[in-house]
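Side project, low priority. Logging it here so it doesn't get lost.
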Amino acid sequence: MTRNILLVTTTPLLPADSGGRIYTWGTTAPLAGRYRYHLLAMANDAERAQFARDADTLDARYREVFASYTFVDRPPIPADLDRRAVLRHLLEHTRHGLPLMDVSYYSTDAVAAARRIVAEHDIDLIEVDHLQMAFVRRFVPEVPAILVNHNIEGDLHPFWMTDRWSPPELAVWRAFAEISRRNSRAIELRNRFGFAAKLFISSADAARVDDACPKYLLPVPMASRPRTQPFHRDRFEILWLGGFDWPPNVQGARWFMEQVWPRLLELTDVPIRLRLVGGAPPPDLVAHDADPRIEVPGYVDDIEPLKATADVLIAPLLEGSGVRVKTVEAMAAGLPVVATTKGHEGLDAVPGRDLLVADDPATFAAELARLATSVELRRSLSRSATAYVEAHHDPARVADIKAQAIDEALAH
């Protein structure tokens, strides 16, 4: 008998154009033949409009994997609410012991939709993708559930503060923020919501969580594609990939532009071109586009040509947890990577062999300068990177790990 699984996500999964979507789609689509999946996804106006523009194509792809799919409106986060609504939001979340108050997507509409799908399709298991959707487990406790962790969210939130708050209001928020952190840690580090299993993209994250339920390491599934384009001999092309709606990306890009980029220009005479690719770049990063050596195009539909022709991908992240999916993508394509420790955290890649790692601006610039003057070093890193991905991120092996977690949860 084919078992029914409800997957709840913070965002529509298609197009798979962000790290979170790539991870969730890549670990779900291969299992469509083993289970009958149903999707409940949050969506905002822009995502609904995107679906409407490409409805036929996206509908066909969804139906290849899901027996049904449902979108519900993503509620506004507190930063976008008036003061009275913020207070109601915080009190409601505190009452139910919900995590991530600053970016929570809890809504009565989402709970009602989950209950309806559970009843209509005789759901056997709920797969909660991301701690932001853990509220579904809280309000549908009769169905066993597993939690897929993209990172340890309690490390990142709350990160929003706005200049509209007065000192007394900030004091109130900070008090609720501490409650939010405690709720988040109680769920993701200890298992207060009673998940039957937890899956982790990173072994470092898994090691921090207690053993209240079984834990599984679920790597990013990625097929390696050895590089076919030659590296440039007459110039050096640097690529950044990552949406700027995630604060650690903004922080990392600013660190690179302010502290690494000027040093790099002093270290080599090789002509350098830099592309900062990602949606919603802030004005101070867009301003760099005036430099003829720098391009800040914003969101790009097809990044494959950029990866195929770049000489290096940079991942200069200073905060966060989990795994940078863009780093794995680049390595799978044979694109050399220079990263901070955070930029390759959660991977078993060997620094110096599979990628280059530097945590201070001078060393980061020096590693890039070394790559700029050595095509052979780029080739060596390219070969090692694709070999690493083949050994650690094989999609078939990842699918088997997730199926084992699902089957054992269902058996309980």
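Brief comment: Residues 236-392 form a domain with the Rossmann fold fold (CATH 3.40.50.2000).
Revisit when time allows.
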